[in-house]
Amino acid sequence: MTHSSSPDITATAEPHDVHAVEEKWRRYWENNGTFLAGGADDDRPRRYVLAMFPYPSGDMHMGHASNYLYSDIVARFWRHRGYNVLQPIGWDSFGLPAENAAIQRGADPREWTYDNIAQQRDSLGKYGVSFDWSRVLHTSDPEYYQWNQWLFQQMYDRGLAYRAESPVNWCPNDQTVLANEQVVDGSCDRCGATVIKKKLTQWYFKITEYADRLLEDLDALEGVWPHKVLQMQRNWIGRSTGADIDFEIEGRAEKVTVFTTRADTLHGATFMVVAPDSDLAAELAVSASPETRMRFQDYLDKTQKQTDIERQSSDREKTGVSLERFAVNPVNGELLPIWAADYVLADYGHGAVMAVPAHDQRDLDFARTFDLPVRVVLDTSAEGENLPDPTETGEALAGEGVLINSGELDGLPKAEAIARMTEILAKSGSGRATTQYRLRDWLISRQRFWGTPIPMIHTADGRIEKVPADQLPVTLPVAKDIDLKPKGTSPLGGATEWVTTTDPVTGEPALRDPDTMDTFVDSSWYYLRFLSPKSDTVAFDPAEANRWAPVDTYIGGVEHAILHLLYA
């Protein structure tokens, strides 16, 4: 057996200088505008390829690298097919991670952020991603966030930005409020701390105004977006059709409205449950005995330390406090004892539910715990079978059936009975058909420094006025002059020189709003700013938006199917 020898190529081959090749092509692409999107005179078909822009928390990691590799493959594919491709890049550069990192290091969030951006930009350039570098934007630049402020004021003028007091999600670690979408399994999506409820006055965007449109337009995306993403949005919007029913409360002039999808079971209501952290519970507890008021306060304190996930868990022991008051069932006049119980949430429906324990498992568990009556009003048994007693079995009767123990509804199947009861309530003026949503308005104010200042002014006599348009942007003050440590209120409120301003109506001294906007405001419209990134006259050019939008391919983590996509 013989062996042939191979030439020693190491002795003759020229050394390959990776860095020189890399630098050569980076310089060539930059000098020749290789990856710039064509202008309005470019008649090639267009493709807008967008990767979720990076957060500058440090240098690039492999998650970043893979995300931009995917978008680059798509962009290069369409270029090779003869398309005019727009693939922009920018940085989502406001937010808590940069602020927290700066606090830990005694640094300025600006310095920390822009140093990281420079490092990430260099790393992206090294592996040759084909971005249009002429369109770079940073959401922490005043040239960008002035348009956040302008958009805020446009929505305020239309009643779509408003301020209200309500129970909010509070991160005790980051010392700021969170939108519902930023609470994951009861924890802060930024730091992982367990989120609690607090009652605060905050700024909201009225996204519920568009709930039906958001939901129904998903049908047009079937087969285009992944079904998983569409279903995540449908579930989050969570439309429920049912009825609002008005209950009188003994000794109270104003009625209490309860939402239910099962108006047919109204004859089976045997008690009412209100959220402990609702205004109604606090009001009703005032007239209770001193012992009950003490029990209620203790119970409320415990409730406020629990997450919504914990409160709604089906396998936890039911707890509650009787408020020693009664509601009146509008169809039969029965008195229903009112309880405060943590399995009802203050921001669901109207913060109160009619409890029908025979046909709702949580209500049944509560009734059995406190020995409350259970009345069956829907016969779900098959022909010839005995109807189980939920009090004995511990299982609520669910499913289809016919009404019993329900007056004129007796004998009607469930669907017909729901419609008939809704008609009866409407005729008597004690109820009406309605629709509820799981979706809540977007809470956008944050008690932190590194974000877009909210462009509103609080006057000495209690008015809220817009910062005049010619004074936008309201820019952030110098960080070194402010104590940035989380303290439950915005650091900007302690920046005396910055927060003090003038009432635009009277000229008297007034205060700026001390809160900043959620960073998801920045990322909800950046894809449009990429089309006119240098404009100082418009947020985006409508002609460019008509030419490029909507985005053809959007690449990033599916966890943002709710956040980025829904907010956009």
Task: Please state the structural category.
Answer: alpha+beta
Strand content: 15-25%
Tell me, rounded to a whole number, the average pLDDT.
Answer: 92
Count helical runs. Answer: 18
List unreliable stretches of 5+ residues. Answer: none
Give the overall silhouette: globular
Please tally the β strands and state the result: 26
Terminus-to-terminus distance = 71 Å
Helix content: 25-40%
Rg calc: 30 Å
Describe this structure in words.
By secondary structure, the protein is of the alpha+beta class. Helices cover 31% and strands 22% of the residues. It has 18 helices and 26 strands. Strands 10, 11, 12, 13, 14, 15 and 18 form a seven-stranded mixed beta sheet that branches. Strands 6-5-9-19 form a four-stranded antiparallel beta sheet. α3 crosses α4 (109-126). The radius of gyration is 30 Å and the shape is globular. The protein starts with 17 loop residues before the first helix and ends with a helix. The mean pLDDT is 92.
Quick recap:
This protein has 568 residues and is of the alpha+beta class. It is 31% helix and 22% strand. The model has no long low-confidence stretch (mean pLDDT 92).
Can you lay out the helices and strands and say which pair or pack?
Blueprint: H1 18-32, E1 46-51, H2 62-80, E2 84-86, E3 88-91, H3 96-105, H4 109-126, E4 132-138, H5 142-157, E5 161-171, E6 176-178, E7 183-184, E8 187-188, E9 196-205, H6 211-216, H7 227-237, E10 239-249, E11 252-260, E12 271-274, H8 279-286, H9 290-303, H10 308-311, E13 321-328, E14 335-340, E15 352-355, H11 361-370, E16 378-379, H12 390-393, E17 402-403, H13 414-428, E18 431-437, E19 442-443, E20 445-446, E21 456-458, E22 464-466, H14 496-499, E23 500-502, E24 509-512, E25 516-517, H15 519-522, H16 526-529, H17 542-548, E26 553-555, H18 563-567
Parallel strand pairs: 1-2, 1-26, 3-4, 12-14
Antiparallel strand pairs: 5-6, 5-9, 7-8, 9-19, 10-11, 10-13, 10-18, 12-15, 13-14, 16-17, 20-25, 21-22, 21-24, 23-24
